TrEMBL record:
The gene is RvY_07104. It comes from Ramazzottius varieornatus (Water bear). It comes from the Eukaryota. GO terms for molecular function: oxidoreductase activity. Coiled coil: none annotated. InterPro entries: AKR, Aldo/ket_reductase_CS, NAD(P)_OxRdtase_dom_sf, NADP_OxRdtase_dom. This is NADP-dependent oxidoreductase domain-containing protein. Pfam families: Aldo_ket_red.
Amino acid sequence: MYSMELPISVDREHFRALDADKKFKHPKHPHTFFRDIDPLLVWNELELLVDAGLAKSIGLCNFNREQVQHILDNSRIKPANLEIEIHPYLPQSDLVSFCLEHDVAVTAFAPFGSSNHSGEDAAVPLLLEEPILKRIGDKYGKSPAQVVLHWLVQQNISVLPRAEKLSDLREDFEIFDFNLDDGDLLDIAQLGMKNVRYHSLD
C-alpha cells in the first residue's frame, strides 16, 4: 500500500483542529467557520494529493465565478470540474459558460429541484410540475424529468439526478432519442427568470 508524509502548509490552528473524538461534530458557528480561510490554501493541499498519485482529478463545488477565477489564477493544477445547483429555474448560464470556456467541466446537482424544500414553503414552485416542461415533454413523449436531463446534457453539462426507484434510473437514461429545438430552448430559458435556488448557500 502506498503511503507518504505530505507536507502541510495550511495553518492547522486556523482550521481549529479538534480532538479525534470531536472532529466530526457540527461546528458551533457553521456559517462563519471557514469565513477567513482562503480556499486557495486548501486547493494547494489538494494539488499535493495529485502529485502524490493519491488523486487523479480535483474540482470545486458551490464556487462562484470570482472564486473559480481565483483558483485558476493562482494554482498549478486547474479544477477539472465545478459542481453547482443547476435546473431550469436556476440555469447559472454565465457561470457555466465561463467554466466551459476555461475547460472546467460543469456538473449539475439537484437538476429536478427539491420536493422537500417545496413542501416546506408553498411559495416555492415544484419544478417537475412546471407546465412548460410538461408541454415540451408531451411533444416528445417524455416526462418533465427527461426534458430537464436532456436540456442539461445538450449544454455539455454532466448531471447527478436522484433516482429512488429502478424505473426512475431507466427513465433517466432514455433521453438520447430526441432533441430540444430552438423554440423549446427559448421556452425553458424563460423559466430562469424565476431564479429559484432550492439549496441555500446562506
